[in-house]
Amino acid sequence: MQLLLSLAAAAVLALTGAVPPATAQATPTLRIALIPGDISGEAYYAKDLGFFKKAGYDIEFTPITSGAAISAAVASGAVDIGFANVVSLSIAHERGVPFTLLASANLHMPTQVTAGILTVLKSGPIKSAKDLEGKVVAVNGLNNISSVSVQAWVDKNGGDWKTVKFVEMPFPQMPDAVRAGRVDAASIDAANEQLLVKPDTDLRRLANVFDAVGTHFAPSSWFTSAAWVDAHPAAAKAFIAVMAEAAAWGNANHAASAVILAKYLNKTPQDIDSVTRAPYGTKITPDLVQPSIDAAAKYGLIKASFPAAEMISPLAR
After folding, report:
1. Considering only CA atoms, which of 74, 226, 219 is closest in space to residue 139?
2. Which listed site, 27, 32, 71, 286, has its alpha carbon 20 to 30 Å from 13?
3. Within 10 Å of residue 173's Cβ, how many Cβ atoms?
4. Is residue 12 a contact partner of residue 4, using CB atoms and an 8 Å limit?
5. From the CB of residue 15, how many other CB atoms can be counted at a distance below 10 Å?
6. Which one has a higher pLDDT value, 123 or 5?
7. d(Cα 193, Cα 39) in Å, to the nearest integer?
8. pLDDT value at position 14?
9. CATH number attached to the domain at 29-107+217-316
10. Domain over 117-212 is classified CATH 3.40.190.10
11. Integer Cα distance of 249 and 287 in angstroms
């Protein structure tokens, strides 16, 4: 009897075209590694607003605070897509690592400075680029856009960039390190920017050092491996389209985006919206990438500059 029931069920499925639940295809998942923050906010918005779901994908986030660790995760296949600064990716490119850029992340513009805020003691002796010669500067990553931008600013403003020393430090620890004299200056981000405008502040903004790299460029990008794009062209195209939509939405909806970020960053929307918010690029283009490559070459992180188009996926052009 059981055999007859099974045969009958199979016949019904054949006639109706129904698919048994066990054989139904699961929604594919994109595994994304990112540095948690406003600078990577597009991915959070795209998930919460249903942009990824509409494109046919589930999302799995892996928060990692180091761009180098994210690059290693992408290279190993532990994640599909990552977020990293372009200077670090240009170093990988020169070494033959087959990374390719899919979408712009945060942009740097003089009117919306969210990183590279070089900070010193208000009462201290450092007043100029030359005063930084031989001094120690805290950055959130060595040999990336954080350190290169300080070198570029010192160089363009009359100091000897080769004498500047760097230590790696998380952003939240930087203000106290300056106050305690453990470092002479720190390149902070917008999350600590409010410390510089308080009436009783003991800190002072010396410069916006990203301006020395360029006045409109993408310090960071969403990237993956060329092999992953070759194996998943539809997913790569979907990611590019979704991030463009999320970038445009994020640029136009600061109050609503702060509510989304608050869930992921364990902050209040008021905390997030109280500082300068990151603008996002809706498309990755060579002119947004080239400044970082040129700076990496000028300050010795790569042997020579190269055309930014070499790093950008053909699907993103």
Report:
1. 219
2. 27
3. 14
4. no
5. 8
6. 123
7. 15
8. 35
9. 3.40.190.10
10. yes
11. 22
What are the C-alpha distances in Å from 206 to residues 58, 79, 107, 118, 181? 44, 38, 21, 5, 16
- Ramachandran class of 221: left when φ > 0, alpha when ψ lies in -120 to 50, beta otherwise: beta
Tell me the C-alpha to C-alpha distance, in Å, between residue 289 and each of 22, 36, 115, 251. 46, 22, 17, 20
- pLDDT of residue 204 exceeding 70, the answer is yes
Query: Could you identify the residue written with the tokens 């909806």?
Result: 253
Residues linked to residue 314 through DSSP beta bridges, in sequence order: none
Q: Which two tokens stand for residue 272?
A: 């997030």
pLDDT at 25: 67
What φ, ψ does residue 66 adopt, rounded to 5°? -115, 125
